[in-house]
Specification:
By secondary structure, this protein is mainly alpha-helical. It has six helices and two strands, in the order ααααββαα.
Amino acid sequence: MSQPPEDPTREPTAGPTREPTAEQVAAELTAVVGRLMRRLRTASPESRLTPSQRSVLARLDVEGPATTAALARVEYVRPQSMRLTLAALEEQGLVERAPDPGDGRQSVVSVTDTGRTVLAGVRAAKRDWLSGAIAGELDAAERRTVAEAAALLARLVES
């Protein structure tokens, strides 16, 4: 029995040929990226850094020294919370304080050599887990697809 021809003006209601909406892609991407981030956080459990501590340490490494207030603003936390995070990092010898050259009443926090070493270890553990998962789970065509998707995601982030 033959099928009647499809009406090109009619939207499909279900099935693999239906184009996903921006909202559907956003929801799926949010869920997958969230799971990926959680998995990456578990890739280096020996670092004993909380997610907040890792974030602050990485920010200081990339952006350079900053005041407690400036870090609190960019990390979207209260200054009191940032002081606790910085105190924990300082206690581990991962950051150090120095007088702010622009305002002697304040201090700036920067990453120590030990902090850079710990951060490099955390980054390497994440990269090693992810590259191993990619090598073990994806064939060459899938790796190319993921590389293309990464380029598209970078474009979205930079928009």
